[in-house]
Amino acid sequence: xxxxxxxxxxxxxxxxxxxxxxxxxxxxxxxxxxxxxxxxxxxxxxxxxxxxxxxxxxxxxxxxxxxxxxxxxxxxxxxxxxxxxxxxxxxxxxxxxxxxxxxxxxxxxxxxxxxxxxxxxxxxxxxxxxxxxxxxxxxxxxxxxxxxxxxxxxxxxxxxxxxxxxxxxxxxxxxxxxxxxxxxxxxxxxxxxxxxxxxxxxxxxxxxxxxxxxxxxxxxxxxxxxxxxxxxxxxxxxxxxxxxxxxxxxxxxxxxxxxxxxxxxxxxxxxxxxxxxxxxxxxxxxxxxxxxxxxxxxxxxxxxxxxxxxxxxxxxxxxxxxxxxxxxxxxxxxxxxxxxxxxxxxxxxxxxxxx
Length: 355
Description:
Strand content: 15-25%
Number of domains: 3
Structural class: alpha+beta
């Protein structure tokens, strides 16, 4: 049995190893630089298997049209006509060597019919045991990888999707969708909890996509273009650092809000209290990033005019205490009521008012 890569025929015999030099697209996880080893399957007569000792998953295409991913450290049986995508090069398993002057550059066939047409006609190997027999054998080949294709997110995580699709579709478009979703949550959430949850999910997604871009960029650099592949890896690292920074900031924000809530609770414990002869502060509350003060006017009431309110806002913006509030909150609301509880007037103060 041979492994044909381009015009090279590598013999596949029991206990043989394929080195990094023989399959240059792979890097071994072993000290002896072996990226694949050929082992006998003790439960099947004259059957050989191949073990993945590289750090990359291989895509396997069988003559019957089935495909599966062989992860690092896992074995699978060698089958005549089987195609192995090592990442940068393809190899085809054949029962006999192909003469150098007739061996052509190998490319993955589009279908099982094409595969059959490119495979030399040979006497078929002995009939294999059933899948259940292999699974019950008790040998080292008990772990047989699934022949179902890996799902999309797994392939994305492994860097098995092309760099342009990974970067532009999953990275850029996916990132924009995530940011829009977070902003929508911010506008509609009445508490901070869903905002933090959305932000954490977005950061996790950013980390996931950054790893996917980094791995896809590495494959791209090896096979298509080193510049764009390495540039994508640099961008992915920066994205990952930004995600970690966002998580740290979220943690700090949560601590700040807990501190604010404690301060508000402490203030409310001392209320109500008289601020002057006729004005009483009854309650302070927080709704997300808005701080609200509730007052009761106990004496004769003067409803301020628009000009008086503007003058009050200008004076408040010069007050260190008000500026401190607006540094921590987006808005401060002051509501004044009469003795009966009816609203006399309401003043809203925002950061924009004090610019």
